[in-house]
Design goal:
Helix content is 64%, strand content 9%. It has 627 residues and is of the alpha/beta class. It has a six-stranded mixed β-sheet, sandwiched between helices.
Length: 627
Protein backbone atom coordinates (compact mmCIF):
# COMPACT_ATOMS: atom_id res chain seq x y z
CA UNK A 1 0.00 0.00 0.00
CA UNK A 2 2.80 2.44 0.91
CA UNK A 3 4.53 1.70 -2.38
CA UNK A 4 1.32 2.56 -4.23
CA UNK A 5 0.95 5.73 -2.22
CA UNK A 6 4.51 6.84 -2.94
CA UNK A 7 4.00 6.08 -6.63
CA UNK A 8 0.89 8.25 -6.61
CA UNK A 9 2.89 11.08 -5.06
CA UNK A 10 5.59 10.74 -7.69
CA UNK A 11 2.97 10.85 -10.46
CA UNK A 12 1.57 14.02 -8.92
CA UNK A 13 5.06 15.56 -8.86
CA UNK A 14 5.53 14.59 -12.49
CA UNK A 15 2.22 16.20 -13.38
CA UNK A 16 3.29 19.41 -11.69
CA UNK A 17 6.59 19.25 -13.55
CA UNK A 18 4.93 18.75 -16.92
CA UNK A 19 2.81 21.80 -16.13
CA UNK A 20 5.99 23.86 -16.14
CA UNK A 21 6.64 22.94 -19.78
CA UNK A 22 3.12 23.80 -20.87
CA UNK A 23 3.27 27.12 -19.01
CA UNK A 24 6.59 27.91 -20.67
CA UNK A 25 5.08 27.65 -24.14
CA UNK A 26 1.95 29.61 -23.24
CA UNK A 27 3.82 32.51 -21.66
CA UNK A 28 6.03 33.18 -24.69
CA UNK A 29 3.20 35.10 -26.35
CA UNK A 30 2.63 37.38 -23.36
CA UNK A 31 5.97 39.21 -23.33
CA UNK A 32 6.47 42.42 -25.27
CA UNK A 33 9.76 44.21 -25.69
CA UNK A 34 10.43 47.47 -23.87
CA UNK A 35 11.33 50.23 -26.35
CA UNK A 36 12.26 53.07 -23.98
CA UNK A 37 13.03 53.92 -20.39
CA UNK A 38 9.43 55.08 -19.81
CA UNK A 39 8.49 51.99 -17.74
CA UNK A 40 10.94 53.22 -15.09
CA UNK A 41 8.57 56.10 -14.35
CA UNK A 42 6.30 53.58 -12.66
CA UNK A 43 8.97 53.14 -10.00
CA UNK A 44 8.56 56.76 -8.85
CA UNK A 45 5.79 56.00 -6.31
CA UNK A 46 8.11 53.52 -4.63
CA UNK A 47 11.05 55.94 -4.67
CA UNK A 48 9.12 58.99 -3.47
CA UNK A 49 8.04 57.12 -0.33
CA UNK A 50 11.44 57.97 1.17
CA UNK A 51 11.99 61.73 0.82
CA UNK A 52 14.61 61.82 3.62
CA UNK A 53 16.84 59.32 1.80
CA UNK A 54 16.35 61.23 -1.45
CA UNK A 55 17.23 64.58 0.20
CA UNK A 56 20.36 63.16 1.84
CA UNK A 57 21.44 61.65 -1.45
CA UNK A 58 20.85 64.96 -3.27
CA UNK A 59 22.94 66.91 -0.75
CA UNK A 60 25.94 64.61 -0.99
CA UNK A 61 25.54 64.32 -4.76
CA UNK A 62 25.91 68.11 -5.06
CA UNK A 63 28.87 68.11 -2.66
CA UNK A 64 30.64 65.28 -4.50
CA UNK A 65 30.07 66.87 -7.92
CA UNK A 66 31.22 70.29 -6.69
CA UNK A 67 34.39 68.92 -5.13
CA UNK A 68 35.13 66.96 -8.29
CA UNK A 69 35.02 70.20 -10.28
CA UNK A 70 37.25 72.01 -7.75
CA UNK A 71 40.17 69.61 -8.25
CA UNK A 72 41.11 70.77 -11.80
CA UNK A 73 41.21 74.36 -10.53
CA UNK A 74 43.55 73.27 -7.76
CA UNK A 75 45.89 71.65 -10.28
CA UNK A 76 45.89 74.87 -12.32
CA UNK A 77 47.18 76.73 -9.27
CA UNK A 78 49.86 74.09 -8.73
CA UNK A 79 51.09 74.38 -12.34
CA UNK A 80 50.88 78.18 -12.71
CA UNK A 81 51.74 79.25 -9.19
CA UNK A 82 53.68 76.38 -7.64
CA UNK A 83 55.64 75.30 -10.73
CA UNK A 84 55.98 78.85 -12.03
CA UNK A 85 54.07 78.27 -15.24
CA UNK A 86 52.42 81.71 -15.03
CA UNK A 87 53.21 83.29 -11.63
CA UNK A 88 51.88 86.68 -12.67
CA UNK A 89 48.46 85.42 -13.75
CA UNK A 90 45.26 86.68 -12.16
CA UNK A 91 44.58 83.23 -10.68
CA UNK A 92 47.89 83.22 -8.83
CA UNK A 93 47.35 86.73 -7.52
CA UNK A 94 43.86 85.83 -6.29
CA UNK A 95 44.20 82.26 -4.97
CA UNK A 96 47.91 81.83 -4.26
CA UNK A 97 48.48 80.00 -0.99
CA UNK A 98 52.15 80.80 -0.61
CA UNK A 99 55.60 80.09 -1.95
CA UNK A 100 55.69 76.59 -0.45
CA UNK A 101 54.65 74.01 -3.07
CA UNK A 102 53.56 71.60 -0.33
CA UNK A 103 50.68 73.85 0.64
CA UNK A 104 49.03 73.35 -2.74
CA UNK A 105 49.27 69.59 -2.48
CA UNK A 106 48.02 69.58 1.12
CA UNK A 107 45.04 71.62 -0.01
CA UNK A 108 44.47 69.09 -2.81
CA UNK A 109 44.61 66.23 -0.32
CA UNK A 110 42.02 67.99 1.86
CA UNK A 111 39.70 68.40 -1.13
CA UNK A 112 40.22 64.75 -2.08
CA UNK A 113 39.40 63.64 1.47
CA UNK A 114 36.18 65.66 1.50
CA UNK A 115 35.32 64.27 -1.94
CA UNK A 116 35.82 60.71 -0.66
CA UNK A 117 33.50 61.33 2.30
CA UNK A 118 30.84 62.96 0.14
CA UNK A 119 31.03 60.10 -2.38
CA UNK A 120 30.78 57.50 0.39
CA UNK A 121 27.66 59.10 1.86
CA UNK A 122 26.17 59.53 -1.60
CA UNK A 123 26.74 55.84 -2.28
CA UNK A 124 25.31 54.81 1.10
CA UNK A 125 22.06 56.73 0.81
CA UNK A 126 21.30 55.81 -2.79
CA UNK A 127 22.21 52.15 -2.22
CA UNK A 128 19.97 52.03 0.84
CA UNK A 129 17.18 53.61 -1.18
CA UNK A 130 17.66 51.05 -3.97
CA UNK A 131 17.49 48.11 -1.56
CA UNK A 132 14.40 49.57 0.12
CA UNK A 133 12.61 50.16 -3.18
CA UNK A 134 13.34 46.64 -4.40
CA UNK A 135 12.18 45.12 -1.10
CA UNK A 136 8.93 47.09 -1.34
CA UNK A 137 8.51 46.12 -4.98
CA UNK A 138 9.05 42.42 -4.29
CA UNK A 139 6.52 42.54 -1.47
CA UNK A 140 3.99 44.41 -3.60
CA UNK A 141 4.35 41.95 -6.49
CA UNK A 142 4.15 38.87 -4.27
CA UNK A 143 1.17 40.22 -2.31
CA UNK A 144 -0.58 40.93 -5.61
CA UNK A 145 0.24 37.46 -6.95
CA UNK A 146 -1.46 35.93 -3.92
CA UNK A 147 -4.70 37.69 -4.86
CA UNK A 148 -4.80 36.44 -8.45
CA UNK A 149 -7.16 33.61 -9.31
CA UNK A 150 -5.89 30.21 -10.51
CA UNK A 151 -6.85 31.10 -14.08
CA UNK A 152 -3.94 33.58 -14.14
CA UNK A 153 -1.47 30.78 -13.43
CA UNK A 154 -2.92 28.73 -16.27
CA UNK A 155 -1.58 31.35 -18.68
CA UNK A 156 1.60 32.33 -16.80
CA UNK A 157 4.21 29.78 -15.82
CA UNK A 158 5.46 29.74 -12.25
CA UNK A 159 9.11 29.76 -13.32
CA UNK A 160 8.55 32.99 -15.22
CA UNK A 161 6.92 34.63 -12.20
CA UNK A 162 9.79 33.59 -9.93
CA UNK A 163 12.30 34.92 -12.44
CA UNK A 164 10.56 38.28 -12.39
CA UNK A 165 10.59 38.33 -8.60
CA UNK A 166 14.33 37.60 -8.44
CA UNK A 167 16.30 38.41 -11.59
CA UNK A 168 14.21 41.37 -12.71
CA UNK A 169 14.08 43.00 -9.28
CA UNK A 170 17.85 42.60 -9.00
CA UNK A 171 18.25 44.54 -12.25
CA UNK A 172 16.02 47.28 -10.88
CA UNK A 173 18.05 47.38 -7.66
CA UNK A 174 21.21 47.86 -9.71
CA UNK A 175 19.70 50.83 -11.52
CA UNK A 176 18.02 52.52 -8.56
CA UNK A 177 20.82 51.82 -6.11
CA UNK A 178 23.80 52.35 -8.39
CA UNK A 179 23.27 53.29 -12.01
CA UNK A 180 20.95 56.21 -11.31
CA UNK A 181 23.42 57.56 -8.78
CA UNK A 182 26.26 57.26 -11.26
CA UNK A 183 24.15 58.80 -14.00
CA UNK A 184 23.11 61.81 -11.90
CA UNK A 185 26.62 62.38 -10.63
CA UNK A 186 27.98 62.05 -14.15
CA UNK A 187 25.41 64.45 -15.59
CA UNK A 188 26.14 66.99 -12.85
CA UNK A 189 29.91 66.82 -13.23
CA UNK A 190 29.73 66.71 -17.04
CA UNK A 191 27.48 69.78 -17.26
CA UNK A 192 29.65 71.55 -14.69
CA UNK A 193 32.85 70.62 -16.51
CA UNK A 194 31.48 71.79 -19.87
CA UNK A 195 30.38 75.09 -18.33
CA UNK A 196 33.76 75.71 -16.70
CA UNK A 197 35.56 74.74 -19.92
CA UNK A 198 33.83 77.65 -21.66
CA UNK A 199 35.20 80.04 -19.02
CA UNK A 200 38.71 78.58 -19.31
CA UNK A 201 38.86 78.68 -23.13
CA UNK A 202 35.77 78.97 -25.29
CA UNK A 203 37.53 77.87 -28.46
CA UNK A 204 38.68 74.57 -26.98
CA UNK A 205 35.25 74.16 -25.39
CA UNK A 206 33.53 74.43 -28.78
CA UNK A 207 35.82 71.69 -30.14
CA UNK A 208 34.85 69.37 -27.29
CA UNK A 209 31.13 70.19 -27.62
CA UNK A 210 31.31 69.38 -31.34
CA UNK A 211 32.24 65.83 -30.35
CA UNK A 212 28.93 65.38 -28.52
CA UNK A 213 26.65 64.52 -31.46
CA UNK A 214 29.32 62.24 -32.91
CA UNK A 215 29.47 60.33 -29.62
CA UNK A 216 25.70 60.21 -29.13
CA UNK A 217 25.02 58.86 -32.63
CA UNK A 218 26.46 55.36 -32.03
CA UNK A 219 24.83 55.29 -28.60
CA UNK A 220 21.42 55.81 -30.18
CA UNK A 221 22.13 53.40 -33.02
CA UNK A 222 23.43 50.56 -30.86
CA UNK A 223 21.44 51.22 -27.67
CA UNK A 224 18.10 49.96 -28.95
CA UNK A 225 19.63 46.73 -30.16
CA UNK A 226 21.40 46.24 -26.81
CA UNK A 227 18.06 46.78 -25.06
CA UNK A 228 16.25 44.25 -27.25
CA UNK A 229 18.95 41.63 -26.78
CA UNK A 230 18.98 42.28 -23.04
CA UNK A 231 15.25 41.56 -22.86
CA UNK A 232 15.66 38.40 -24.91
CA UNK A 233 18.50 37.34 -22.62
CA UNK A 234 16.28 37.82 -19.56
CA UNK A 235 13.50 35.79 -21.16
CA UNK A 236 15.85 32.95 -22.04
CA UNK A 237 17.22 33.00 -18.49
CA UNK A 238 13.65 32.57 -17.25
CA UNK A 239 13.26 29.63 -19.66
CA UNK A 240 16.39 28.01 -18.25
CA UNK A 241 15.10 28.47 -14.70
CA UNK A 242 11.76 26.93 -15.59
CA UNK A 243 13.44 24.05 -17.42
CA UNK A 244 15.55 23.24 -14.36
CA UNK A 245 12.57 23.55 -12.02
CA UNK A 246 10.52 21.19 -14.15
CA UNK A 247 13.18 18.46 -14.07
CA UNK A 248 14.07 18.85 -10.40
CA UNK A 249 10.45 18.82 -9.24
CA UNK A 250 10.02 15.44 -10.88
CA UNK A 251 13.55 14.15 -10.12
CA UNK A 252 12.33 10.71 -9.02
CA UNK A 253 10.44 10.25 -12.26
CA UNK A 254 13.45 11.44 -14.27
CA UNK A 255 15.75 8.99 -12.55
CA UNK A 256 13.24 6.13 -12.59
CA UNK A 257 12.96 6.38 -16.37
CA UNK A 258 16.73 6.99 -16.76
CA UNK A 259 16.04 10.30 -18.51
CA UNK A 260 19.02 12.13 -17.01
CA UNK A 261 20.92 12.41 -20.33
CA UNK A 262 17.88 13.71 -22.22
CA UNK A 263 17.00 16.21 -19.49
CA UNK A 264 20.61 17.35 -19.40
CA UNK A 265 20.53 17.93 -23.16
CA UNK A 266 17.25 19.87 -22.95
CA UNK A 267 18.59 22.11 -20.18
CA UNK A 268 21.89 22.53 -22.04
CA UNK A 269 20.02 23.68 -25.14
CA UNK A 270 18.16 26.34 -23.16
CA UNK A 271 21.37 27.48 -21.45
CA UNK A 272 23.22 27.63 -24.75
CA UNK A 273 20.38 29.66 -26.24
CA UNK A 274 20.73 32.10 -23.34
CA UNK A 275 24.48 32.22 -23.89
CA UNK A 276 24.07 32.86 -27.62
CA UNK A 277 21.78 35.84 -27.04
CA UNK A 278 24.09 37.19 -24.34
CA UNK A 279 27.01 36.81 -26.74
CA UNK A 280 25.17 38.89 -29.35
CA UNK A 281 24.51 41.57 -26.75
CA UNK A 282 28.16 41.58 -25.68
CA UNK A 283 29.26 41.82 -29.32
CA UNK A 284 27.00 44.80 -30.00
CA UNK A 285 28.21 46.56 -26.86
CA UNK A 286 31.83 45.81 -27.79
CA UNK A 287 31.37 47.39 -31.23
CA UNK A 288 29.60 50.36 -29.66
CA UNK A 289 32.46 50.76 -27.17
CA UNK A 290 35.08 50.60 -29.93
CA UNK A 291 33.31 53.26 -32.00
CA UNK A 292 32.80 55.57 -29.03
CA UNK A 293 36.38 55.22 -27.82
CA UNK A 294 37.72 55.92 -31.31
CA UNK A 295 35.67 59.09 -31.54
CA UNK A 296 36.55 60.22 -28.01
CA UNK A 297 40.28 59.58 -28.23
CA UNK A 298 40.59 61.12 -31.69
CA UNK A 299 38.69 64.19 -30.54
CA UNK A 300 40.76 64.57 -27.37
CA UNK A 301 44.01 64.32 -29.29
CA UNK A 302 42.76 67.03 -31.65
CA UNK A 303 41.83 69.25 -28.70
CA UNK A 304 45.23 68.70 -27.05
CA UNK A 305 46.96 69.50 -30.34
CA UNK A 306 45.11 72.79 -30.67
CA UNK A 307 45.66 73.56 -26.99
CA UNK A 308 49.41 72.92 -27.23
CA UNK A 309 49.60 75.37 -30.12
CA UNK A 310 47.82 77.98 -28.01
CA UNK A 311 50.18 77.42 -25.06
CA UNK A 312 53.16 77.89 -27.36
CA UNK A 313 51.59 81.10 -28.63
CA UNK A 314 51.04 82.12 -24.95
CA UNK A 315 47.32 82.50 -25.63
CA UNK A 316 46.62 80.47 -22.46
CA UNK A 317 48.78 79.47 -19.49
CA UNK A 318 50.06 75.93 -18.93
CA UNK A 319 47.93 75.76 -15.78
CA UNK A 320 44.79 76.78 -17.69
CA UNK A 321 45.57 74.13 -20.30
CA UNK A 322 45.99 71.54 -17.53
CA UNK A 323 42.70 72.63 -15.98
CA UNK A 324 40.93 72.43 -19.34
CA UNK A 325 42.31 68.97 -20.11
CA UNK A 326 41.10 67.70 -16.74
CA UNK A 327 37.64 69.16 -17.33
CA UNK A 328 37.62 67.62 -20.79
CA UNK A 329 38.56 64.27 -19.31
CA UNK A 330 35.75 64.57 -16.74
CA UNK A 331 33.24 65.47 -19.46
CA UNK A 332 34.29 62.82 -21.97
CA UNK A 333 34.66 60.03 -19.41
CA UNK A 334 31.25 61.05 -18.11
CA UNK A 335 29.75 60.49 -21.54
CA UNK A 336 31.43 57.08 -21.65
CA UNK A 337 29.98 56.19 -18.28
CA UNK A 338 26.57 57.33 -19.42
CA UNK A 339 26.72 54.85 -22.30
CA UNK A 340 27.29 52.05 -19.81
CA UNK A 341 24.53 53.37 -17.60
CA UNK A 342 22.19 53.72 -20.56
CA UNK A 343 22.52 50.01 -21.34
CA UNK A 344 21.76 49.11 -17.72
CA UNK A 345 18.81 51.49 -17.62
CA UNK A 346 17.37 49.87 -20.74
CA UNK A 347 17.72 46.43 -19.18
CA UNK A 348 16.02 47.69 -16.02
CA UNK A 349 13.28 49.27 -18.14
CA UNK A 350 12.50 45.86 -19.60
CA UNK A 351 12.59 44.30 -16.12
CA UNK A 352 10.27 47.00 -14.77
CA UNK A 353 7.86 46.44 -17.62
CA UNK A 354 7.73 42.75 -16.85
CA UNK A 355 7.07 43.40 -13.15
CA UNK A 356 4.42 45.98 -13.88
CA UNK A 357 2.68 43.44 -16.10
CA UNK A 358 2.29 41.31 -13.00
CA UNK A 359 1.10 44.24 -10.87
CA UNK A 360 -1.42 45.27 -13.51
CA UNK A 361 -2.87 41.76 -13.82
CA UNK A 362 -6.44 41.76 -12.58
CA UNK A 363 -7.94 38.93 -10.63
CA UNK A 364 -11.17 37.45 -11.94
CA UNK A 365 -12.28 36.80 -8.35
CA UNK A 366 -12.71 40.14 -6.63
CA UNK A 367 -14.67 41.28 -3.60
CA UNK A 368 -17.78 43.32 -4.38
CA UNK A 369 -17.73 47.04 -3.62
CA UNK A 370 -20.01 46.45 -0.64
CA UNK A 371 -19.67 42.79 0.41
CA UNK A 372 -22.48 41.16 2.33
CA UNK A 373 -22.00 40.07 5.93
CA UNK A 374 -22.80 36.52 6.97
CA UNK A 375 -24.93 36.03 10.04
CA UNK A 376 -22.84 34.53 12.83
CA UNK A 377 -22.53 31.75 13.66
CA UNK A 378 -22.56 30.42 10.10
CA UNK A 379 -24.88 27.41 9.80
CA UNK A 380 -23.33 25.84 6.69
CA UNK A 381 -26.31 25.52 4.33
CA UNK A 382 -25.03 25.05 0.77
CA UNK A 383 -26.86 25.30 -2.55
CA UNK A 384 -25.96 25.04 -6.24
CA UNK A 385 -28.65 26.61 -8.43
CA UNK A 386 -28.35 25.69 -12.12
CA UNK A 387 -24.58 26.15 -12.11
CA UNK A 388 -22.76 25.95 -15.44
CA UNK A 389 -19.01 26.38 -15.65
CA UNK A 390 -16.11 25.90 -18.09
CA UNK A 391 -12.44 26.32 -17.20
CA UNK A 392 -10.77 29.34 -18.87
CA UNK A 393 -8.22 27.03 -20.52
CA UNK A 394 -11.05 24.96 -22.07
CA UNK A 395 -13.90 27.41 -22.65
CA UNK A 396 -15.53 25.20 -25.28
CA UNK A 397 -16.05 22.32 -22.81
CA UNK A 398 -18.34 22.70 -19.82
CA UNK A 399 -17.04 21.07 -16.64
CA UNK A 400 -20.51 21.52 -15.06
CA UNK A 401 -23.85 21.69 -16.87
CA UNK A 402 -26.87 23.05 -14.99
CA UNK A 403 -25.91 21.45 -11.66
CA UNK A 404 -28.57 21.90 -8.97
CA UNK A 405 -28.51 20.51 -5.42
CA UNK A 406 -28.72 21.71 -1.83
CA UNK A 407 -27.09 20.50 1.37
CA UNK A 408 -28.58 21.22 4.77
CA UNK A 409 -26.44 22.36 7.65
CA UNK A 410 -24.80 19.40 9.38
CA UNK A 411 -25.47 17.01 6.48
CA UNK A 412 -22.73 14.76 5.11
CA UNK A 413 -22.91 14.37 1.34
CA UNK A 414 -20.62 12.20 -0.80
CA UNK A 415 -19.81 13.02 -4.41
CA UNK A 416 -19.06 9.97 -6.54
CA UNK A 417 -18.44 9.45 -10.21
CA UNK A 418 -15.68 8.80 -12.72
CA UNK A 419 -12.68 11.06 -13.19
CA UNK A 420 -13.63 14.25 -15.02
CA UNK A 421 -17.24 14.12 -13.88
CA UNK A 422 -16.95 17.53 -12.19
CA UNK A 423 -16.51 16.56 -8.53
CA UNK A 424 -13.35 18.61 -7.85
CA UNK A 425 -14.81 21.47 -9.89
CA UNK A 426 -17.62 21.74 -7.34
CA UNK A 427 -15.00 22.19 -4.59
CA UNK A 428 -13.16 24.85 -6.58
CA UNK A 429 -16.37 26.78 -7.14
CA UNK A 430 -17.32 26.49 -3.47
CA UNK A 431 -13.94 27.95 -2.54
CA UNK A 432 -14.58 30.62 -5.17
CA UNK A 433 -11.33 29.94 -6.95
CA UNK A 434 -13.50 30.41 -10.02
CA UNK A 435 -16.93 31.91 -10.60
CA UNK A 436 -19.63 30.02 -12.53
CA UNK A 437 -20.59 31.17 -16.01
CA UNK A 438 -24.24 31.03 -14.97
CA UNK A 439 -26.24 30.07 -11.92
CA UNK A 440 -25.61 30.74 -8.25
CA UNK A 441 -23.69 29.14 -5.42
CA UNK A 442 -25.06 29.97 -1.98
CA UNK A 443 -23.84 29.73 1.59
CA UNK A 444 -26.59 30.26 4.17
CA UNK A 445 -28.68 31.85 1.43
CA UNK A 446 -25.99 34.37 0.39
CA UNK A 447 -24.71 34.33 -3.18
CA UNK A 448 -20.99 33.52 -2.96
CA UNK A 449 -20.25 36.42 -5.32
CA UNK A 450 -21.83 38.84 -2.85
CA UNK A 451 -19.25 37.89 -0.20
CA UNK A 452 -15.62 38.90 0.07
CA UNK A 453 -13.60 35.84 -1.05
CA UNK A 454 -11.71 35.64 2.25
CA UNK A 455 -14.94 35.85 4.25
CA UNK A 456 -16.33 32.92 2.26
CA UNK A 457 -13.16 30.83 2.49
CA UNK A 458 -12.87 31.29 6.25
CA UNK A 459 -16.04 29.22 6.57
CA UNK A 460 -14.48 26.30 4.69
CA UNK A 461 -11.83 23.75 5.62
CA UNK A 462 -10.44 21.59 2.84
CA UNK A 463 -8.31 18.47 2.55
CA UNK A 464 -7.04 18.11 -0.99
CA UNK A 465 -6.32 14.90 -2.83
CA UNK A 466 -2.58 15.53 -3.08
CA UNK A 467 -2.29 17.55 0.09
CA UNK A 468 0.44 20.17 -0.37
CA UNK A 469 2.68 20.79 2.62
CA UNK A 470 5.21 23.57 3.08
CA UNK A 471 8.79 23.85 4.27
CA UNK A 472 8.87 24.32 8.03
CA UNK A 473 8.03 22.16 11.01
CA UNK A 474 5.17 19.71 11.42
CA UNK A 475 3.54 22.12 13.85
CA UNK A 476 3.86 24.97 11.34
CA UNK A 477 2.07 22.92 8.70
CA UNK A 478 -0.80 21.99 11.01
CA UNK A 479 -0.99 25.59 12.29
CA UNK A 480 -1.45 26.67 8.65
CA UNK A 481 -5.14 25.97 9.23
CA UNK A 482 -5.32 28.45 12.12
CA UNK A 483 -2.25 30.67 12.72
CA UNK A 484 -3.21 31.57 16.31
CA UNK A 485 -3.58 27.94 17.44
CA UNK A 486 -1.78 26.85 20.60
CA UNK A 487 0.46 23.81 20.93
CA UNK A 488 -2.37 21.95 22.69
CA UNK A 489 -4.77 22.75 19.86
CA UNK A 490 -2.25 21.45 17.32
CA UNK A 491 -1.76 18.23 19.24
CA UNK A 492 -5.52 17.72 19.61
CA UNK A 493 -5.98 18.12 15.86
CA UNK A 494 -3.16 15.67 15.18
CA UNK A 495 -4.73 13.11 17.52
CA UNK A 496 -8.07 13.52 15.76
CA UNK A 497 -6.35 12.88 12.43
CA UNK A 498 -4.49 9.82 13.77
CA UNK A 499 -1.20 11.64 13.20
CA UNK A 500 0.07 12.11 16.76
CA UNK A 501 1.79 8.74 17.02
CA UNK A 502 3.95 9.01 13.89
CA UNK A 503 4.71 12.70 14.58
CA UNK A 504 6.08 11.82 18.04
CA UNK A 505 8.27 9.18 16.39
CA UNK A 506 9.93 11.81 14.16
CA UNK A 507 13.41 13.03 15.25
CA UNK A 508 12.16 16.31 16.75
CA UNK A 509 8.48 15.48 17.11
CA UNK A 510 6.23 18.40 16.22
CA UNK A 511 9.34 20.57 15.65
CA UNK A 512 10.72 18.27 12.94
CA UNK A 513 11.55 20.23 9.78
CA UNK A 514 9.82 18.69 6.77
CA UNK A 515 11.83 20.30 3.96
CA UNK A 516 10.43 21.30 0.60
CA UNK A 517 7.06 19.63 -0.13
CA UNK A 518 7.59 17.35 2.90
CA UNK A 519 9.36 14.85 0.66
CA UNK A 520 10.62 12.84 3.67
CA UNK A 521 7.08 11.74 4.63
CA UNK A 522 5.01 8.97 3.12
CA UNK A 523 1.81 9.79 1.28
CA UNK A 524 -0.34 8.67 4.20
CA UNK A 525 1.64 10.74 6.69
CA UNK A 526 1.38 13.82 4.52
CA UNK A 527 -2.34 13.27 4.15
CA UNK A 528 -2.89 12.95 7.88
CA UNK A 529 -1.04 16.20 8.56
CA UNK A 530 -3.27 17.86 5.98
CA UNK A 531 -6.33 16.37 7.68
CA UNK A 532 -5.11 17.69 11.05
CA UNK A 533 -4.73 21.11 9.43
CA UNK A 534 -8.37 21.01 8.29
CA UNK A 535 -9.61 19.76 11.66
CA UNK A 536 -7.74 22.59 13.41
CA UNK A 537 -9.44 25.18 11.19
CA UNK A 538 -12.77 24.22 12.79
CA UNK A 539 -14.84 25.70 9.95
CA UNK A 540 -18.61 25.10 9.62
CA UNK A 541 -18.13 23.47 6.18
CA UNK A 542 -15.67 20.63 5.65
CA UNK A 543 -14.53 19.67 2.13
CA UNK A 544 -12.73 16.34 1.72
CA UNK A 545 -11.27 15.66 -1.71
CA UNK A 546 -10.54 11.92 -1.53
CA UNK A 547 -9.08 12.66 1.88
CA UNK A 548 -8.43 9.04 2.81
CA UNK A 549 -7.21 7.84 -0.60
CA UNK A 550 -3.57 7.58 0.53
CA UNK A 551 -4.20 5.78 3.84
CA UNK A 552 -3.92 2.11 4.68
CA UNK A 553 -7.17 0.37 5.75
CA UNK A 554 -6.36 0.49 9.48
CA UNK A 555 -5.58 4.22 9.43
CA UNK A 556 -8.61 4.82 7.23
CA UNK A 557 -10.92 3.34 9.86
CA UNK A 558 -9.49 5.57 12.57
CA UNK A 559 -9.65 8.65 10.35
CA UNK A 560 -13.17 7.79 9.28
CA UNK A 561 -14.27 7.64 12.91
CA UNK A 562 -12.57 10.97 13.60
CA UNK A 563 -14.30 12.59 10.65
CA UNK A 564 -17.68 11.23 11.67
CA UNK A 565 -17.21 12.86 15.06
CA UNK A 566 -15.97 16.12 13.50
CA UNK A 567 -18.83 16.20 10.98
CA UNK A 568 -21.59 16.10 13.60
CA UNK A 569 -21.84 19.87 13.92
CA UNK A 570 -20.79 20.89 10.42
CA UNK A 571 -21.68 20.43 6.79
CA UNK A 572 -19.41 17.89 5.12
CA UNK A 573 -18.97 17.41 1.39
CA UNK A 574 -16.67 14.57 0.46
CA UNK A 575 -15.38 13.28 -2.85
CA UNK A 576 -15.30 9.58 -2.11
CA UNK A 577 -13.89 6.55 -3.83
CA UNK A 578 -13.87 4.45 -0.66
CA UNK A 579 -16.92 2.32 0.07
CA UNK A 580 -16.80 3.07 3.81
CA UNK A 581 -17.14 6.78 3.13
CA UNK A 582 -19.96 6.24 0.65
CA UNK A 583 -21.98 4.02 3.01
CA UNK A 584 -21.74 6.43 5.94
CA UNK A 585 -22.85 9.53 3.99
CA UNK A 586 -26.31 10.92 4.64
CA UNK A 587 -26.75 11.35 0.91
CA UNK A 588 -24.80 10.48 -2.23
CA UNK A 589 -24.69 12.64 -5.35
CA UNK A 590 -23.67 10.69 -8.45
CA UNK A 591 -22.01 12.80 -11.14
CA UNK A 592 -21.39 11.99 -14.78
CA UNK A 593 -20.22 14.30 -17.60
CA UNK A 594 -20.61 17.45 -15.49
CA UNK A 595 -24.19 16.67 -14.49
CA UNK A 596 -25.98 15.04 -11.60
CA UNK A 597 -26.95 11.58 -12.77
CA UNK A 598 -28.66 10.49 -9.54
CA UNK A 599 -28.75 11.10 -5.81
CA UNK A 600 -29.96 9.33 -2.69
CA UNK A 601 -28.68 7.05 0.06
CA UNK A 602 -26.37 4.13 -0.62
CA UNK A 603 -29.21 1.60 -0.31
CA UNK A 604 -31.60 3.65 -2.43
CA UNK A 605 -29.12 4.07 -5.26
CA UNK A 606 -28.17 0.38 -5.31
CA UNK A 607 -31.83 -0.54 -5.62
CA UNK A 608 -32.34 1.54 -8.76
CA UNK A 609 -30.12 -0.52 -11.06
CA UNK A 610 -28.69 2.72 -12.44
CA UNK A 611 -25.46 4.65 -12.80
CA UNK A 612 -24.47 4.29 -9.16
CA UNK A 613 -24.77 0.51 -9.09
CA UNK A 614 -22.69 0.27 -12.26
CA UNK A 615 -20.11 2.61 -10.77
CA UNK A 616 -19.88 0.56 -7.57
CA UNK A 617 -19.39 -2.64 -9.54
CA UNK A 618 -16.66 -1.08 -11.68
CA UNK A 619 -14.98 0.55 -8.69
CA UNK A 620 -14.91 -2.40 -6.31
CA UNK A 621 -15.28 -5.36 -8.64
CA UNK A 622 -18.22 -6.92 -6.77
CA UNK A 623 -21.50 -5.98 -5.16
CA UNK A 624 -21.16 -4.91 -1.53
CA UNK A 625 -22.50 -7.43 0.94
CA UNK A 626 -25.34 -6.51 3.27
CA UNK A 627 -26.81 -3.64 1.28
Amino acid sequence: MSVQNDAANRRADADRGSGFAAEMERDAAHREKARSAKPLRRLLPYILRYPALLAAFAVFLVLASGLTLILPGAFRLVVDCGFGGAPDSLACETFAIGPDLSAYFLAGIAVAFCLALASAFRFYFISRLGERVVADLRRAVFDHLLTLSPSFYVDTRTGEVLSRLTTDTTLIQTVVGSSVSVALRTVATTVGALTLMVFVNWQLALMVLAMGPVILLPIMLFGRRVQRLSRESQDELANASARAGESLQAIETVQAFTREPEESVRFRDVVESTFAISLKRIGVRAVMTAVIFTVILTGLIAVLWFGAVQVQAEAITPGAMTQFVMYAFVAVSGVGMLTETYAEVMRAAGATERLMELLSAQTEIAAPAEPASLAMPVRGDLAFNDVTFAYPARPETNALNGVRFSIAAGETVALVGPSGAGKSTIFQLLLRLYDPASGQIELDGFDARSLAPQTLRRQLAVVQQNAPLFSGSVADNIRFGRPDASADDIKAAAIAANADAFIKALPDGYDTQLGESAGTLSGGQRQRIAIARAVLRDAPVLLLDEATSALDPESEQVIQAAFEAAAKDRTTLVIAHRLATVRNADRIIVMEDGQIADQGTHAELLGREGVYKRYIELQFGEMPVGT
